[in-house]
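User: Let's play a game. I give you a shape written as tokens, and you guess the letters that built it. Ready? Here's round one.
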């Protein structure tokens, strides 16, 4: 009999395995954090799938890729490096250069991919609230916390750029 492909039954008692083999409860803050980032990544994927801009889609793909590594790092898979907030800060700076200054608060929903990014942003903010507990207990390092703290900023910036570009695409 071949091993199960999707269903392992290993979590049927409310625990899951981390990348280092340790079993923890499924509601452990570490599992909650990388699970929340998984939701965020899915919303970014929705934005990428509906984007009319190849340039923005490429940027979103890079963010998704980074989040995958961050989730693996948080899940304690060996060999993964501590995340750095620098790539996220570069995104914010790039978007600022692309669109200039803008209003601080916007209402989500001007475009489908922009709305998906606002959904991702709010999910990222929930991840921040989960991460702070782990940071306070020194279960995640400062660089990782800084990355998680910056992800919502980068997503917000990308949502502004996405809305601007998508509106231009729709006019054509």
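Assistant: Ready! My guess for every position:
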């Amino acid at each position: 009999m071949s091993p199960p492909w999707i269903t392992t039954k290993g979590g049927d008692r409310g625990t899951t395995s981390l990348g280092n083999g340790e079993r923890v409860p499924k509601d452990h803050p570490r599992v909650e954090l990388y699970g929340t980032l998984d939701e965020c990544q899915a919303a970014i994927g929705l934005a990428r799938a509906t984007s009319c801009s190849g340039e923005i889609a490429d940027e979103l793909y890079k963010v998704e890729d980074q989040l995958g590594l961050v989730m693996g790092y948080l899940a304690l898979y060996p060999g993964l490096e501590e995340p750095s907030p620098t790539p996220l800060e570069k995104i914010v700076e790039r978007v600022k250069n692309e669109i200039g200054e803008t209003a601080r608060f916007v209402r989500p929903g001007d475009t489908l991919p922009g709305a998906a990014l606002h959904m991702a942003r709010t999910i990222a903010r929930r991840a921040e609230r989960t991460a702070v507990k782990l940071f306070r207990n020194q279960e995640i390092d400062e660089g990782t916390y800084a990355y998680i703290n910056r992800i919502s900023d980068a997503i917000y910036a990308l949502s502004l750029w996405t809305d601007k570009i998508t509106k231009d695409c729709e006019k054509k």
